[in-house]
Amino acid sequence: MRGHIILAAAIAVMGAGQAMAGDLIRVKTGKSVDAAMSALQAAVEGAGATVFARVDHAAGAKMVDMDLGEAQVLIFGNPKLGTPVMQADPRAGLFLPLRVLAYADGDGQVWLAYQDPKEMLEDLDVDDVPAIGMMQGALGKLTAKAAAE
Description:
Layout: H1 2-13, E1 18-21, E2 24-29, H2 33-46, E3 50-56, H3 57-63, E4 71-77, H4 79-88, E5 98-104, E6 110-115, H5 117-120, H6 131-147
Antiparallel strand pairs: 1-2, 2-6, 3-4, 4-5, 5-6
Helix pairs in contact: 2-6, 4-6
């Protein structure tokens, strides 16, 4: 049943430029990495969630005289969703807050990528926590909004 739901969701959004690879979900965008990440940050803040950090991996590489393609991670969350998950299993703190990576692939195509929360937390004792489905929905909506032109 779970596989059918995931497949149906993937088919429903493929037209919007989303691709799945295992438990990683990628959303295609025509924006630059920086513009996509700024749009995601604005969407997250507009939704009332908290941005904890924005990590620029390329800038970190430059600090050690190495080159890396543009890649940024936004770390964010909503305690109303994350707290019930951590109450069910404190080990969820290893995976929360949520993260979305903006990066350009070898062809220069920019993607927003994140791990499906249900898959990410599947080894923990959180099967019956409704907030996980809410996280899935929020990530889908936020990344779609950020990727839109």
